[in-house]
Here is the input.
Amino acid sequence: MPEHKELARRAFFSKSGQLTLSAAAISLLGGGNAFAHSSASSILDVEILNVALALEHEAIGAYQLGAGSGLLTKPTLDIAIQFQSHHKTHRDALAATIDRIGGQAVKEKSLEEYAKSLKASTLKNQADVLALAAKLELGAANAYLGVIPSFKDINLSQVAARLAADEVMHWTVLSQALGNSLPASAFSFGS
Here is the structure.
């Protein structure tokens, strides 16, 4: 890997606690199992995939905390459960990829640990739950957008863009439910 690609990958990996997904993870999430098996053989890829997996575990936990809080109305609860199912699909794909390439998938933490790290005790109403979810979704959207330039294969960039679009959709729905205005300026994501 050229040095500038590795530096970009590391910089993205450490940016604001976000993650970067290897080409294998993006490919697998987009349905490209063969590519995932053939190109993700390094220890660094396993580490990156495990960071992504840990963040998927956290998102699932966050939605579970919101769903179990009793603070969500029925329509909002239904959407939260749907978004959680998207994250579960990502989790399963990442774990399968890690296993396939010989790594050990990071285990999820207990719901109590997620509650503590996400400060669930501060969630007092539906708006608080939605604001937390929107913050996590925005981070995921920016993570996928941030990884696009590191791909040589345009197909992988397209998959990452599709996943980013899904996360932006989650963020948009949550933001609208909070009554927030849409971003006033262009290029609102990926920074």
